[in-house]
Amino acid sequence: MSGKTNLKIKKRLLSILNDRCLKRKRVILASGKVSNYYFDARIGSLSSEGAYLIAQIILNMIKNDQIDAVGGLTLGADPVIGSIIALSFKTKQRLNGFIVRKEEKNHGMGKLIEGYPLKKSSRVLIIDDVVTTGSSTIKAIKAVKATGAKIIRVIAIVDRLAGAEQNIKKYNLKLESIFTAKDFNL
């Protein structure tokens, strides 16, 4: 994908997120912080166009990383994981997906991670939709590290610029984002 094409795709995704997903109202975030805006990114990631654009951008970002699997903490990461692994089949990257539960299941197989079974040799992308402090992303990071798999990249659709990058850095990982709050003039 050329730089010009990627820029066009990002511009369209920004428009979708701005028009459909950004809610300007007072809310309490998962981090416990109070905010004057909320990104309901699932509105974008669960639309056909939004899912396709997000997957295309992320697959382009990781095209040279030889990643085996993509996953993150349920629920924000779920639609993004699905769109990435589906489109990866067409692009010949052939990624597998996994979902990290918020807590270990207390029945059945008692799994914390569902889907692709991670191994020590697995090269992994951790994904999240919107990050504030990074606590949800860090739960996924800890679960993956416990398997011994190697985390290659950590990518969010939107970084609210409220500490996630610094908190994730404590795990010797770099948070990358497609957009930040600045892209929405917040």
Structural summary, described in words:
This protein is α/β, with parallel strands linked by helices and 186 residues long. It has one domain: Rossmann fold (3-Layer(aba) Sandwich). It is built from six helices and ten strands; from the N terminus they run αββββααβαβββαβαβ. The strands form three sheets. Strands 7-6-5-8-9-10 form a six-stranded mixed sheet, sandwiched between helices. Helix 1 crosses helix 3 and helix 3 packs across helix 4 (78-91). The longest helix is centred in the N-terminal third of the chain and has 19 residues, at 3-21.
Q: CATH class, please?
A: Alpha Beta
Strand content: 15-25%
Strand order of the largest sheet: 7-6-5-8-9-10
Taking the alpha carbons of the first and last residues, their distance comes to 30 Å
Q: Which consecutive residue ranges, at least 5 long each, have pLDDT under 50?
A: none
Shape verdict:
globular
The proportion of residues forming helix, as a percent range, comes to 25-40%
The CATH architecture can be given as 3-Layer(aba) Sandwich
Number of separate structural domains: 1
Order of helices and strands: HEEEEHHEHEEEHEHE
Number of strand elements: 10
Report the radius of gyration as a whole number of Å. 16 Å
